[in-house]
Amino acid sequence: MDFQTAKQYDDEYIIHSYGRFPVLLTKGKGATVQDDTGKTYIDFTSGIGVNALGFCDDNWVQAVSAQLQSLQHTSNLYYTEPCIQAAKLLCEKSGMKKVFFGNSGAEANEGVIKAARKYSFLKYGASRNKIIALQNSFHGRTMAALSATGQDAYHNFFFPFVDGFVFAKANDFADILSKMTDDVCAVILETVQGEGGVVPLDKEYVQAVAKACKEKDILLIVDEVQTGMGRTGSLFSYQQFGIQPDLVSCAKGLGGGLPIGAVLFGEKTETVFVPGDHGSTFGGNPVVCAGAVHILNTMDEAFLQDVQKKGAYLKEKIEKMPHVENVAGLGMMLGIQLDVEAKPVINALLEAGLLVLSAKTKIRLLPPLTITQEELDKGLTILEQTLASL
């Protein structure tokens, strides 16, 4: 199928809830992907942070394929080994106690919201149910996750939204402390606000929030859907902030290209859910979990140090490029603020053979964590040449 045929069918049969780039991608390997004409691109997006090991990593493909040949699905009514292995690795590497598997980041955030409210209901009663989220946050597209998202642009059309969410200013401890009233059960935050423009939170602020939550028995939830799975240079970003959350949501890179979400429960919350409280038909799917096991085993200390090194290299190189005002983020999750509008630059980069993302007014980079030095330098050359031509 060529691009024009694909576009025609897409226009005819698929809802246009996404603004697509005019490219039909057909196959990829590592951080390089090809379209229907044979043109190649360097991928600095990893499917919005999903392809942690790049396109078609040989060992990941082997793990998934082997599982497909033995058992593709059973439901959570039965035990399966990949699900148990993935949960064990997540707990051992995160310091958390238990795992619930679902299908997406939004579903994982629905799970942490339910868990936080049930914990507080059991201990304090039904009236202690509010959750503090941060302004400029993004937690997903389902109704509760959308209601927890602190951006006015998303709060339209779909009324009524789910009640019980209060918004505090990011990096303003006095503001969030003033909102920790007796009816609050949890705080949810992203250590780096990804969709909000790749905006990192201050370490001192995060630690102060965690301390206040502990003192008030308010659960601390960290949304690691985009920052998790090695993206920031540690398996989970909160591990760089010196805190231990009560609940963690993750997804994206955990699946490496297959749909998965997970809720990680800490010591306070590990017994909150009992049979019937929560569920997911496809959650813990053995094929997806087989891939996740490989990814988790791959992300050892040497792997994570390499991510840190590549992230620092990217930041250093980009900061010296024309039209770049600043580069923010952690590890290989970076946002580039230009002194010109980002959208035309993103389109020009596509034409030149580099795939990047946007985040508000910035160019957002989420390269595969396994990107080679050659691919990294090729992508940076395209970026620099494109910026220099403006």
Automatic annotation (TrEMBL):
<keyword id="KW-0028">Amino-acid biosynthesis</keyword>
<dbReference type="InterPro" id="IPR015424">
    <property type="entry name" value="PyrdxlP-dep_Trfase"/>
</dbReference>
<comment type="subunit">
    <text>Homodimer.</text>
</comment>
<dbReference type="InterPro" id="IPR015422">
    <property type="entry name" value="PyrdxlP-dep_Trfase_small"/>
</dbReference>
<protein>
    <recommendedName>
        <fullName>Acetylornithine aminotransferase</fullName>
        <ecNumber>2.6.1.11</ecNumber>
    </recommendedName>
</protein>
<dbReference type="GO" id="GO:0003992">
    <property type="term" value="F:N2-acetyl-L-ornithine:2-oxoglutarate 5-aminotransferase activity"/>
</dbReference>
<dbReference type="GO" id="GO:0005737">
    <property type="term" value="C:cytoplasm"/>
</dbReference>
<dbReference type="InterPro" id="IPR050103">
    <property type="entry name" value="Class-III_PLP-dep_AT"/>
</dbReference>
<dbReference type="InterPro" id="IPR015421">
    <property type="entry name" value="PyrdxlP-dep_Trfase_major"/>
</dbReference>
<feature type="binding site">
    <location>
        <position position="281"/>
    </location>
    <ligand>
        <name>pyridoxal 5'-phosphate</name>
    </ligand>
</feature>
<feature type="modified residue" description="N6-(pyridoxal phosphate)lysine">
    <location>
        <position position="252"/>
    </location>
</feature>
<dbReference type="InterPro" id="IPR005814">
    <property type="entry name" value="Aminotrans_3"/>
</dbReference>
<feature type="binding site">
    <location>
        <position position="141"/>
    </location>
    <ligand>
        <name>N(2)-acetyl-L-ornithine</name>
    </ligand>
</feature>
<comment type="similarity">
    <text>Belongs to the class-III pyridoxal-phosphate-dependent aminotransferase family. ArgD subfamily.</text>
</comment>
<keyword id="KW-0808">Transferase</keyword>
<keyword id="KW-0055">Arginine biosynthesis</keyword>
<keyword id="KW-0032">Aminotransferase</keyword>
<feature type="binding site">
    <location>
        <begin position="223"/>
        <end position="226"/>
    </location>
    <ligand>
        <name>pyridoxal 5'-phosphate</name>
    </ligand>
</feature>
<comment type="pathway">
    <text>Amino-acid biosynthesis; L-arginine biosynthesis; N(2)-acetyl-L-ornithine from L-glutamate: step 4/4.</text>
</comment>
<dbReference type="GO" id="GO:0030170">
    <property type="term" value="F:pyridoxal phosphate binding"/>
</dbReference>
<dbReference type="InterPro" id="IPR004636">
    <property type="entry name" value="AcOrn/SuccOrn_fam"/>
</dbReference>
<keyword id="KW-0963">Cytoplasm</keyword>
<feature type="binding site">
    <location>
        <position position="280"/>
    </location>
    <ligand>
        <name>N(2)-acetyl-L-ornithine</name>
    </ligand>
</feature>
<dbReference type="InterPro" id="IPR049704">
    <property type="entry name" value="Aminotrans_3_PPA_site"/>
</dbReference>
<feature type="binding site">
    <location>
        <begin position="105"/>
        <end position="106"/>
    </location>
    <ligand>
        <name>pyridoxal 5'-phosphate</name>
    </ligand>
</feature>
<dbReference type="Pfam" id="PF00202">
    <property type="entry name" value="Aminotran_3"/>
</dbReference>
<dbReference type="GO" id="GO:0042802">
    <property type="term" value="F:identical protein binding"/>
</dbReference>
<dbReference type="GO" id="GO:0006526">
    <property type="term" value="P:L-arginine biosynthetic process"/>
</dbReference>
<feature type="binding site">
    <location>
        <position position="138"/>
    </location>
    <ligand>
        <name>pyridoxal 5'-phosphate</name>
    </ligand>
</feature>
<keyword id="KW-0663">Pyridoxal phosphate</keyword>
